[in-house]
Amino acid sequence: MRVTVIGCSGSFPGPESAASCYLVEAEGFTLMIDLGSGALGPLKRHHGLYDIDAVFVSHLHYDHCLDMCGYWVVRRYHPDGALPKIPVFGPSGTAQQLARACGLDPEPGMQEAFEFQTLCPGSFDIGPFAVTTARMNHPVETFGVRVEHDGSSFAYSSDTGECDTLVRLADQADLFLCEASWAGQSMSPDLHLTGRQAGEHAARAGAASLVLTHLIPWDDDGPERTFAEAKDSGFSGSIALAREGDVYEI
């Protein structure tokens, strides 16, 4: 599998990155996980806009899904005619909320471009991938995801506070992409993680590699402090900060 970081900024786009968006590729199939605010432009820089085969929307906060409005335009109004529908997996109400965000009537909303499928915890296939989803600790319905292919595994936390379910989702993962929004402080226990908490979750899961993401761009040294906290968490695997354009082969 190839995992590409398109956007990794938390809560709003920053000067160095759009909000959350990641690609997972294998066997010529591309699964896009989230398409947050500002991510559609960088997506075009790193991947063909028309070469996405399925979309996974982890939750309906704007920094994870808002650019689906622009992507609907891409697929619905292609100069050569509308592109074929692709599946969009998301929480309950995804089709309705995205239609409202784009100023569309609920029917048909975006359903001429996307085939919406409602997520629930469990395992299923998306293209060549074996996918497992689980609910995270966040104020709205939010799904973390584990993607497996040909013996390799990738786990993505989405947004969450401390969560035993996340540890199970990332069990022995080759690559664990984990949010680490709070730099140097712990806020609500059901909202986000610090760098230390992300490292602790990775250690408990026995993950091989940890990439810290959803880095909120409120101050310039926040990511470095987050990285230092994760290094001091007791996690013994490799640790990196997510950056736009980073590619991981697993």
Question: Describe it for me?
Answer:
The protein is an alpha/beta fold and 250 residues long. Helix content is 22%, strand content 28%. The protein has seven helices and 14 strands. The strands form two sheets. A seven-stranded mixed β-sheet has the order 6-5-4-3-2-1-14, covered by helices on one side. A seven-stranded mixed β-sheet has the order 7-8-9-10-11-12-13. Helix 7 links the parallel strand 12 and strand 13. It is globular.
Q: What is this structure's SSE topology?
A:
Layout (H helix, E strand, L loop, with lengths): L1 E6 L13 E6 L2 E5 L6 H7 L7 E3 L5 H4 L2 H9 L9 E5 L3 H8 L12 E5 L3 E5 L2 E7 L7 E7 L2 E5 L7 H6 L5 E5 L15 H11 L3 E5 L8 H10 L6 E4 L5 E3 L1
Parallel strand pairs: 3-4, 4-5, 5-6, 10-11, 11-12, 12-13
Antiparallel strand pairs: 1-2, 1-14, 2-3, 7-8, 8-9, 9-10
Helix pairs in contact: 6-7
Helix share of residues? Answer: 10-25%
Find the structural class using helix and strand composition: alpha/beta
Mean pLDDT: 95
Strand content: 25-35%
Count, helices: 7
Low-confidence stretches: none
Largest sheet: 7 strands, mixed
SSE ordering = EEEHEHHEHEEEEEHEHEHEE
Number of E-type strands: 14
Q: Categorize the overall geometry.
A: globular
Radius of gyration: 17 Å
Strand order of the largest sheet: 6-5-4-3-2-1-14
The N- to C-terminal Cα distance equals 5 Å
